[in-house]
Each structure stands twice: as C-alpha cells, then as structure tokens.
C-alpha cells in the first residue's frame, strides 16, 4: 500500500502510445471540474465536436468522443453496425485487425478474413476478390495505421472497393488521426474510430468516432437490439446530440474532455495538413539516423507510417535488455514487438508532442550508445549528424 502521493519519473514516450502529453493539455485537465450537464460544459461538448470534425475532415453530425480508450471506440462501431448473422469482411495484417475479428464474433457476426503479411498494407485485390465471393457481406473492416507493424493501408481505395459492393466500411484510425492524411468525407468512410493518446498529444481514455448517414441508416434499421447499453448510439446521442437540453446517459470524464479540447484546439492552430507534414518530416530524420546506425525499417517505404516506425532488431542483440537500459538510463520508452513480431522488432513512435527534434536526437543518441555497448557496429556520431541534416532539410 502506498503511503504518500504518487509522483512518477518524467519519461520521454517514444513507443506505440501513449505519446508525450503536451503541457497545455495537462494544464487544461487541472482546471476546476464542473457538472457534465452544466451549460458551460454542454457548450464545450459542441466545440469538441466541431474540432473533431475538422481533425477528421468530415461534416458528419454524429462525430464525438466516446468515454473510454480506442478499444471502446472500436467496440462502439461493431456493436452498432454488426448484427447476429451478418457477414463482415475483416482485414488482418497485424494485432488490431485480429481484435476487429473478435468484435465481429462477439456481436454475433460471421467474420470473413482477408489475411496479409504482418508489416505490409492490406491488399486491395484480395479485398475485391473476397467481396465478390461474398456479395451478402454487410461490412468491410480494416486498420488504417496498424500499430503493431507500422504499415499504412490505402483507405481511399479500400472504401471505393467496398462501396462498389454496397458494403459499409469501419476504419480503425487510432494511430492515424492527426499523424497521417485521413479524409473521412472525401474518401467516403462510413464509420471511423480513433484514440486520444497518440498523435493528438492527449492522455489515454477517450475515443473519437464518426458515423455518416449511410452508417446511421444501418443503425436505425437494425432487426435486433444493440447488445451494449453503454455503447448504444441511439442512447448516447441523447447526451452528445445538439441543443442546450441533453438527456443524462453517463457521467462524462469532464477533465479528460478539457484535455481533449485543448489538444484539438492546438491541432487546429497548427493546421491538420501541417501536422501531417510535421510527422513525415520527422520520420525522414529518424529514418536517416536509424539507417546510419545500421538499422532497418521492416515496412516497405510506400506502405510505411511516419508516426510508428518498426525497426528490425540486429542479430545477437537482446530486445528486453536494450529497452530496459533505455528506460533506466535515459528515461526513454520505446515499444516491443507484438504477436508474430515479438522479440524481432522495436516500435518507435513519433506521435503528436513526441514528434519533435529533441526527442529524435535523444532516441538516436541513446539507442546508438546502448547498441554500441552491446557490440553492435554503428556510427553514433554519424547517426546524430544524419538526423540533424535531415531535420534541417
């Protein structure tokens, strides 16, 4: 039992999430708590929805944060859009596609799997072939930015294919939002969910979602009752809907929503296109430093995420030993591999407030120093210089 207040050590978070939280967000979360039906808070809710529409590039009226992590955003999409007996095509090229499959099963749906190699984007040709073979499929579900592998799939193309087959789309944008181009309306995405703790520079615990009219028509036309009370959008929209009067659904995490509002406000101030460009620019600098250390990114360049970099571990180097030394000696967190990639890769995040020069230089210098101590040949000084050069480009 702890007998005093908890004061964690300050870490630099460059794993797969959470990312470093911006000081403005932490300050916003320390503001006085008010009631979740207070008129001031209702006005803040409306502003959050408007800022989320900007971040997602959508005019969808049903755009809001769900109270819970990205996984709750995922489940909200599936429990509302998949009914018992529905066929749903799900693309699995990493851990989170697998979680989509489990959500389909738990909603009573029948998953039809399109499998791709971990570290590669979803293959549009496989998706088209699968939808041709299953013309009664109700949903196509896939991950935009696969956090477990660092692969980015072509949302626009996959949505176009789904719509040619009269199939709704559910898109996981947890790691994508704010870091990779995402155009919900222009690309025709029907339902999308994300998370607050990655490229938005906010704390964990909120999951932005957005449904277009096609998706809402599916919700309204269900044959069966939505199995989850908490995630039933028919009920939640009574609280997150419009107008000054809101019906009580649950006690929203007031201070966490202060933080999300501040994070979205900063994204608006920076400009969404500029945020995408910042992540690409810093990715190029990180890549230059890693390559100078003799390390390789496992995802082909054309399919690579800028904000989540998956690096092959050199032969003879102990994964855990490196990560422990980085954490203990440099207060730097990077991520381990998951699933098929466990023990084979490190996952280095460049998300939101973590995506800045000071973090890049710490990562390259600290990783280089630890690897050198463990016998890996690599020019640490040259890697730092390469990173500086790419940052200045």
Automatic annotation (TrEMBL):
<dbReference type="InterPro" id="IPR024169">
    <property type="entry name" value="SP_NH2Trfase/AEP_transaminase"/>
</dbReference>
<dbReference type="InterPro" id="IPR015421">
    <property type="entry name" value="PyrdxlP-dep_Trfase_major"/>
</dbReference>
<dbReference type="Pfam" id="PF00266">
    <property type="entry name" value="Aminotran_5"/>
</dbReference>
<protein>
    <submittedName>
        <fullName>Alanine--glyoxylate aminotransferase family protein</fullName>
    </submittedName>
</protein>
<keyword id="KW-0808">Transferase</keyword>
<dbReference type="InterPro" id="IPR020578">
    <property type="entry name" value="Aminotrans_V_PyrdxlP_BS"/>
</dbReference>
<dbReference type="InterPro" id="IPR015424">
    <property type="entry name" value="PyrdxlP-dep_Trfase"/>
</dbReference>
<keyword id="KW-0032">Aminotransferase</keyword>
<dbReference type="GO" id="GO:0008483">
    <property type="term" value="F:transaminase activity"/>
</dbReference>
<feature type="domain" description="Aminotransferase class V">
    <location>
        <begin position="33"/>
        <end position="337"/>
    </location>
</feature>
<dbReference type="InterPro" id="IPR015422">
    <property type="entry name" value="PyrdxlP-dep_Trfase_small"/>
</dbReference>
<comment type="similarity">
    <text>Belongs to the class-V pyridoxal-phosphate-dependent aminotransferase family.</text>
</comment>
<dbReference type="InterPro" id="IPR000192">
    <property type="entry name" value="Aminotrans_V_dom"/>
</dbReference>
<keyword id="KW-0663">Pyridoxal phosphate</keyword>
């Amino acid at each position: 039992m702890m007998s005093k207040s908890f004061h964690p050590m300050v870490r630099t978070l460059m794993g797969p999430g959470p990312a470093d939280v911006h000081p403005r967000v932490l300050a916003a979360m320390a503001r006085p708590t008010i009631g979740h039906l207070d008129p001031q808070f209702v006005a803040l809710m409306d502003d959050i929805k408007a800022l989320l529409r900007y971040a997602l590039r959508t005019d969808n009226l049903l755009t809001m944060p769900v109270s819970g992590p990205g996984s709750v955003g995922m489940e909200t999409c599936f429990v509302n859009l998949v009914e018992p007996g529905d066929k749903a095509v799900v693309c699995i090229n990493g851990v989170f596609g697998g979680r989509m499959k489990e959500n389909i099963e738990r909603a009573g749906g029948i998953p039809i799997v399109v499998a791709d190699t971990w570290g590669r984007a979803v293959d549009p040709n496989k998706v088209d072939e699968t939808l041709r073979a299953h013309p009664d499929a109700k949903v196509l579900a896939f991950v935009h930015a696969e956090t477990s592998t660092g692969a980015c799939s072509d949302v626009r193309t996959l949505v176009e294919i789904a719509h040619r087959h009269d199939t709704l789309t559910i898109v996981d944008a947890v790691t994508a939002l704010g870091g990779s181009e995402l155009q919900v309306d222009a690309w025709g995405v029907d339902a999308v969910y994300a998370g607050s703790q990655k490229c938005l520079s906010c704390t964990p615990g909120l999951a932005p979602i957005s449904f277009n009219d096609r998706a809402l028509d599916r919700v309204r036309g269900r044959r069966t009752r939505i199995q989850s009370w908490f995630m039933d959008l028919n009920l939640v929209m009574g609280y997150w809907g419009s107008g000054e009067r809101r019906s009580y659904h649950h006690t929203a995490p007031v201070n966490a929503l202060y933080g999300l509002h501040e994070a979205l406000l900063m994204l608006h101030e920076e400009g969404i296109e500029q945020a995408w460009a910042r992540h690409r620019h810093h990715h190029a600098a990180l890549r230059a430093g890693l390559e100078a250390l003799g390390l390789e990114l496992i995802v082909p360049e054309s399919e690579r995420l800028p904000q989540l970099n998956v690096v092959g571990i050199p032969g003879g180097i102990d994964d855990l030993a490196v990560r422990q030394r980085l954490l203990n000696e440099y207060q730097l967190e990077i991520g381990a591999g998951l699933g098929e990639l466990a023990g084979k890769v490190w996952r280095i995040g460049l998300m939101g407030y973590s995506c800045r020069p000071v973090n890049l230089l710490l990562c390259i210098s600290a990783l280089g120093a630890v690897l050198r101590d463990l016998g890996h040949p690599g020019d640490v000084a040259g890697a730092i210089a390469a990173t500086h050069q790419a940052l200045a480009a």
